[in-house]
Amino acid sequence: MLLHSLWKVLHLIKIKIEYKMAGKYIFAFLVAAVFAGGVEAQVGVPCHADIFQFTPRHSLNVSEYMGNWYMQEIAGSNIGNFPAPDYKCATRSLSLPNGTDITQVSAVDTFVNVTSGASIVETSAVNVNNTRSPYTSMWYMTTGTVETDVIILSADLEFKQWTVVYSCAILAPDSYRYETVTALTRSQTIEPELRQFLKALMVGVGFRIGDHHPIDQTNCE
C-alpha cells in the first residue's frame, strides 16, 4: 500500500532536486505547498498516530482475496495538498507462493509513468497475521528496504468486486510517515456510483475528500 505511492515520493524528491538545479520548474510550488502543509508534521510520527481508529475487515478469506486488483482511487493523510498520481494503469497481483500457506503472500504492483511512459514493476513479500480474525487483515509488506503496514479495511462479501486498503511506511532518512488509503476493484472500469461509494468509505476512515485522486485506468495494455 501502496508501493506505487512510494514511487510518488521518490518522484517528488527528484523534482525538488531538479528545481534547485534549474530554478524554473512550476512544480516547485506544489513541493513547497506539500512541505508547508504537512510534511514536517509527518516526520518522526509513528503509523496510526492521529485520529484514525481503523477496524480491519473481519473474516478475511486470504485465499479468495488473491488475484488481480485495479487501483482506482488514492488519498493521503495530513498532507494538505496530496498531489495527483504521476502514474496510470496501476494494478496489484496477489498470490500464495507456498501453496495453501496464507501467512506468506507475494504482491506485484505494476503501473505506467504518465510522463515517460515507462512501465514500473514492484514486487513485495507480505507476512499475514494468521492468529484470528480480524488480524488476518493486518499485513506487513516488505519492498526492498521499505517496510509497510497494511490493513485491509473493507471488501465485498465474496472478494470479487472491491476493497479499500490502508498503508503506512516510515521512510528513511528522516523517518517520514507516508500514509495512504487506496480503493481497488476487480474490474478495470467501474461505474460512477461504485466510485462514489468507495470514496465515501475512504472519507469515513478519515481521509479528506480534497486529498483524493482517481487513478487513470484508460488506454492500458
From TrEMBL:
SUPFAM superfamilies to which the protein is assigned, alphabetical: Lipocalins
Name this polypeptide is given: Apolipoprotein D
Species the sequence originates in: Orchesella cincta
